[in-house]
Write a structure and sequence with these properties.
Elements (H helix, E strand, L loop, with lengths): L8 H13 L4 H20 L26 H10 L6 H10 L13 E2 L4 E4 L2 E5 L2 E5 L7 E4 L2 H21 L20 H14 L8 H13 L4 H8 L4 H21 L2 H4 L20
Antiparallel strand pairs: 1-2, 2-5, 3-4
Helix pairs in contact: 1-2, 4-5, 4-7, 7-9, 8-9
């Protein structure tokens, strides 16, 4: 057993490398490093260690994943292939308003069929090996209007779910979820990913993460002229800089298209004065 006083920077560094080699993400290992650093800070304050060796070890840097949205025709094909599927509405809202897997934590009480909105109030995450509803980040809580086609798929989905309950009978476990498993319990995120991969494979589209549907929604919104601020609000980003960093390239293309329209207004050819002859001056009689 190693005591606190025996801890060396090399030991912390070896711990970090072993966790990365085991397949943990850089973000998770950053979190573990932070826990150790904070704990040793407390120990240093209490005089249990002479120094905080974790401060001498750098946490792994998180590599930025490239944004890989579906192309518009691919998004349309995906919606076509899931038409009539029990998860059709889930794909509709993911592609139209960019919901994360937070969609799996939606209850029917979060859907306003009159206003055509969805309210994100919680998330579904794996905690301690079990799926649990958790409190989302403050900016992630939001109410989002849905496009007309998504409202229709939601209404059809509600009717389909009622039929599903009758078919399953006593095996149905009611939780009030909009997108549950086929017995009413929270839908396993890995099963959702398998479903997506199967549909993409059938369409001969490259494999994507479910999160890429969120990127697709953002890209399509920007392409329609929606502002970065509006996209930020729809996606639930905490800062507009995050939105700009993720979708700056797409937004630059939109801005170029918008600015090019000024050509027809302010270019030299647009400024040519109409050829109207000046009125003749009256001749003063002599």
């Amino acid at each position: 057993m190693i005591t606190l006083a025996q801890l060396q920077p090399a030991m912390i560094d070896d711990f970090i490398n072993r966790k990365l080699a085991a397949g943990l993400s850089a973000r998770t290992v950053q979190y573990l490093h932070g826990l150790i650093r904070n704990s040793l800070n407390q120990a240093e304050g209490w005089g249990l260690v002479a120094r905080n060796v974790a401060k001498l070890v750098s946490a792994p840097k998180q590599t930025k994943k490239a944004v890989q949205p579906l192309q518009p025709d691919e998004a349309r094909k995906l919606l076509d292939i899931v038409e009539g599927d029990r998860l059709e509405a889930l794909y509709s809202v993911a592609l139209s308003i960019g919901l994360r897997r937070e969609a799996l934590g939606l209850f029917w009480t979060d859907f306003d069929d009159r206003e055509g909105t969805l309210s994100v109030k919680r998330a579904l995450q794996r905690v301690g090996g079990k799926l649990k509803f958790t409190e989302p980040k403050r900016d992630s809580k939001r109410t989002i209007p849905l496009p007309g086609f998504a409202v229709k798929t939601m209404l059809s989905h509600r009717d389909r779910q009622q039929q599903e309950k009758v078919f399953v009978g006593d095996d149905w476990r009611e939780h009030g979820l909009i997108f549950p498993s086929n017995i009413g319990t929270p839908l396993e995120p890995r099963n959702l990913l398998r479903h997506l991969h199967a549909k993409l494979k059938a369409l001969k589209i490259a494999r994507h993460r479910f999160h890429d549907l969120r990127h697709t929604a953002a890209s399509l919104l920007l392409a329609q002229g929606v502002t970065l601020h509006e996209v930020k609000e729809i996606l639930g980003h905490s800062q507009i800089s995050l939105t700009a960093n993720l979708y700056g390239h797409t937004y630059a293309t939109v801005m170029r298209s918008a600015v090019d329209k000024m050509e027809g207004v302010l270019s030299p050819s647009a400024r040519v004065a109409p050829s109207v002859a000046p009125s003749a001056l009256p001749v003063k009689p002599s």
